[in-house]
Records
---
Amino acid sequence: EAGVVQSPRYKIIEKKQPVAFWCNPISGHNTLYWYRQNLGQGPELLIRYENEEAVDDSQLPKDRFSAERLKGVDSTLKIQPAELGDSAVYLCASSPPRDRGPRLLGEQYFGPGTRLTVT
Amino acid sequence: QKEVEQDPGPLSVPEGAIVSLNCTYSNSAFQYFMWYRQYSRKGPELLMYTYSSGNKEDGRFTAQVDKSSKYISLFIRDSQPSDSATYLCAMSSGGYQKVTFGTGTKLQVIP
């Protein structure tokens, strides 16, 4: 079974430029997460999708960040315009549906991440 | 005060040593406790999880939860160079609920 796929793996942009990250979750996983991980920190949730619906976007800086998951499968996270402080690793994760195990945990499978550097 | 506190290390041990990794937390609502392992330039992978208090063992790894002290631990026996990674503790109040991660402890096992 293929894991969570993310692209690009690395991105270097100048501040004020737009950038987009793409994620393809594990087949059959209807829950998708975007996290940001700063250097030396744990991942912090930006947004969580259940199918096409964003069920938790409270931590997403909506003035410059946007996300979409139009067909309930792959997802795109966009930053426009990027700031120096946006330099981080952006991780995508997915979880299986609640009707098959591990049911209680909502085990999250992470992709390799996109390392963004804003100069 | 952060909800989850974890010593960032780095922690350097000789091969074969017993490793103890720990986290403390402040949110009494946390019920699920997880440990993730993250290799350099990779995403985190779930290593172990426990529900509520108690111990759980899986091969060389043992996870302990003490809810009365709001303290969780991961023990690695007979540590190997391949265990060199960053270990993140993580917690949530329920299944499919928001997961709060610690900052991670970087472990290096010296051959």
---
Amino acid sequence: EPEVTQTPSHQVTQMGQEVILRCVPISNHLYFYWYRQILGQKVEFLVSFYNNEISEKSEIFDDQFSVERPDGSNFTLKIRSTKLEDSAMYFCASLENTIVDEQFFGPGTRLTVL
Amino acid sequence: GIQVEQSPPDLILQEGANSTLRCNFSDSVNNLQWFHQNPWGQLINLFYIPSGTKQNGRLSATTVATERYSLLYISSSQTTDSGVYFCAVVRGGANSKLTFGKGITLSVRP
């Protein structure tokens, strides 16, 4: 069964460094999302992406964050200058179309900022 | 924005017991999904259920959209059912964001 994949599974970085989290959505899906989950808390929406542009973003998604679909398969989240409070699990999700709008999630990348 | 409330926040069961997990939401929704977060942190899709009833093995779910709630039933629970169960809803266009509840932590003891 097709699935969303994410790399790396765990990333440790120093405060102020840039990180890029990678996702490969399900191949025929058209809509892509990033969510994050701070340890012990609920999952929060960051950004949605369709047709090579941002559809919607939350107040968390400030100028430090950016997303890109550099080719036909990858979807990336970049954090330019990481802060301690960026430590969280980051989930990528994808959705096939708007008729059956079920989102499928990747396994997550656990980001630890020291 | 829309509010999603899940209850109870924590649940402890003996293996073999049945349980009902509840999700209330504050406004009409276009989509509702239930997820299981396993001990490794992965979010596993359980149900896509904007309305009606679905069953998958020992799990079933019912959403009554007009009354703004959904229920997840777990029968004959197993230790592998342990983890956090999240309800998430979409309000707005079909490709809009999911808004999650805080989750229900289930512990099934052998």
